[in-house]
Task: inverse folding
């Protein structure tokens, strides 16, 4: 698990590096102090996952900063609920999100999420931390993106998500 986490962390760092390089190539001059807030958008996403005997739902409000027309980055909060057979999970935490739009209709994303998980069933209760690294792609139209993301750190025994693949809808204003 540790080698996998190191490799995935390096992959995310490389993704962010190239996105930032793109930012410096295409960025515009800031003309006023208020221009920062003009580039901040609020919104977030919802997610649903289904498998045999399982369900996962999440809501993730966030704020992003549009560095330029290609790259955005921000922070978010997340609340997740999952139920698999007799097991119930409630998870809450935060995330760092990055979006890259190579063309207007396509949005690529990377998100690091750290959740505190409260797990319970009839026999026990358990609290632990659960990391996730999502890589995703979606169709973007104006303020809305529909897509799918994959948790590369997915662990069958610890993850709150029903499986590693999760469809999403993001909306930012």
Result:
């Amino acid at each position: 698990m540790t080698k996998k986490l190191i490799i995935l962390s390096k992959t995310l760092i490389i993704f962010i590096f190239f996105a930032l390089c793109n930012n410096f190539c295409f960025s515009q001059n800031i003309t006023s102090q208020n221009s920062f807030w003009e580039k901040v958008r609020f919104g977030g996403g919802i997610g649903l996952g289904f498998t045999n005997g399982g369900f996962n739902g999440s809501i993730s409000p966030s704020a992003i900063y549009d560095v330029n027309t290609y790259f955005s980055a921000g922070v978010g909060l997340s609340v997740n609920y999952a139920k698999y057979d007799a097991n119930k999970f409630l998870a809450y935490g935060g995330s760092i999100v990055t979006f890259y739009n190579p063309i207007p209709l396509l949005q690529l994303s990377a998100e690091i999420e750290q959740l505190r998980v409260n797990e319970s069933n009839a026999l026990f209760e358990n609290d632990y931390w659960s990391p996730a690294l999502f890589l995703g792609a979606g169709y973007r139209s104006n303020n809305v993106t529909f897509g799918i993301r994959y948790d590369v750190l997915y662990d069958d025994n610890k993850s709150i998500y029903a499986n590693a693949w999760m469809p999403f809808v993001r909306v930012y204003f």
Remarks:
- The chain has two helices and eight strands.
- The domain at 2-26+40-172 is CATH 2.40.160.20 (Porin).
